[in-house]
Amino acid sequence: MSDALDAGEIEALFTRSDGAYAFARWGRPLSPVVFGVEDQTLGVIKGAFEAVCQLAGHQMAETDPELGANVMVFFCREWAELTGVPNLDRLVPDLGPLVARLEDAGANQYRIFRFDEAGAIRACFVFLRMDAELSAVPAETLALAQVVQSMLLWSDRAFADRSALGRLEDGRIVLRPEIGALLRAAYDPVMPVAAHDPSHALRLFARVSQAL
Questions:
Q1: How do strand 194-195 and strand 23-24 relate by DSSP bridges?
Q2: What average pLDDT does range 158-181 have in this prediction?
Q3: For every residue of 39-83, which 3-state class applies, written as one string?
Q4: Which of 80, 109, 137, 209 could form an SS bridge with 142, CB 3.0 to 4.6 Å?
């Protein structure tokens, strides 16, 4: 299942549709909170955060001293439900127009990142509309995919052609080893929390090559 990533593939994972290279990782421990799910699913999602953070060598915390919770995951059946969430419009400016765009696009997921003065991720908002497609995905698989996509500022085209997840011979869904190695490389303490020069991908590649 493992296919080592070359430098060009790593660069593509952080190169946006406009051609700009944009990388960022979390600069603080993650403090997630989840809305709109049952307790059983809540445990699955938080377990996924714990597993991926441990893999990446990053930390979690009960609360963020500045924000309380810095990862907010919202599950809904219709995008319009978001406009009824108390104070969400204070956290997400232009919430109304965003909901309208998501409805027009027929989207079922959307992520918003906020950054600190160093360019590191300081907050992430994940919105999931549980349409037929997402509802058919097992909770463990959906949780793992969303957590991985929340750990770094990936390209808007990342994983469009191939998922970050893979299936073992026994049928279990796991994070692809080469993506796990990339996460560990990205969170190496000697690496920058943010980068906009494609040469950064070469530094990631050097660490990924050593890990696999």
A1: antiparallel
A2: 91
A3: HHHHHHHHHHHHHHHHHHCCCECCCECCCECCEEEEEECCHHHHH
A4: 137
Contact 119, 193 (CB under 8 A): yes
Residue type, 13: L
Beta-strand runs (E) in the chain: 23-24, 32-35, 71-76, 109-115, 121-129, 165-167, 173-175, 194-195
Domain ranges of the chain: 7-211
Residue range 7-211, CATH number: 3.40.390
Q: From residue 159, how far is each of 9, 12, 32, 155 by CA, in Å?
A: 11, 10, 23, 9
Q: What is the pLDDT of residues 50-93, one digit of tens each?
A: 999 999 999 999 999 998 999 999 999 999 999 999 889 998 98
